[in-house]
Design a protein that fits this description.
Number of helices: 8
Distance between the termini: 34 Å
Radius of gyration: 21 Å
Helix content: 55-70%
Shape: elongated
Structural class: mainly alpha
Number of strands: 2
Order of helices and strands: HHHHHHHHEE
Oligomer: single chain
Strand content: under 5%
Length: 191
């Protein structure tokens, strides 16, 4: 089974209400020839329904912050549009558009996108700052930019860390030397 098919199968199991551990175990029985690591990664990066519900407010806040930051960058780019070369225009427009596209992919509940959002925000902040001669923290525009950038990066990394279960490979006592992935308890579940 290919990685894309494994991700779809894992998403289907989790959409039925399975925890990550149960989804992994069920898929392992259904697909005995699948590589354990690939199967575990497919399950790892698909958040469970409980985790989605538990972090719903944080995810919504991140979407709002990403849209606000992208709007800020597009507004700033519009103000400097006539003073830049075509290459700079395309580059500086591509990052906010990529951030907006990343915000749209939240609907697919992919956890890997959170680290991409943090990276794109950092890249956009570094590129936007290079156009400024001095970082003047008394300017309201700089304060808004810095606050939005730090908030997006921090929240994206927080959600990535919380929604990504770091599994361990352990020997299965029922199957001899074969290993299986063991996931920690789901976020939002009382242990």
């Amino acid at each position: 089974m290919k990685r894309r098919e494994l991700r779809k199968a894992a998403a289907a199991k989790i959409a039925l209400g399975y925890t990550r551990q149960h989804a992994y175990d069920a898929l392992r029985v259904e697909e005995p020839t699948a590589d354990n690591e690939e199967l575990a990664d497919a399950v790892r990066y698909t958040p469970s329904l409980m985790a989605r519900e538990h972090f719903k407010n944080a995810r919504t806040t991140l979407v709002v912050l990403v849209v606000a930051l992208s709007t800020f960058y597009l507004w700033q780019e519009g103000m400097l549009f006539h003073h830049q070369s075509w290459g700079d225009r395309l580059f500086f427009l591509a990052i906010p558009i990529a951030l907006l596209a990343s915000a749209i992919t939240f609907a697919r509940n992919r956890v890997r996108i959170y680290s991409s959002i943090a990276f794109l925000t950092f890249l956009a902040a570094a590129n936007w700052q290079t156009g400024k001669a001095v970082l003047d923290l008394a300017t309201p525009m700089i304060i808004v930019w810095l606050t939005l950038s730090v908030a997006v990066i921090a929240l994206a990394l927080y959600l990535h860390r919380k929604l990504t279960s770091d599994y361990t490979m352990q020997r299965d006592p029922n199957e001899g030397m074969h290993k299986r992935a063991v996931f920690p308890p789901e976020p939002g579940v009382l242990a």
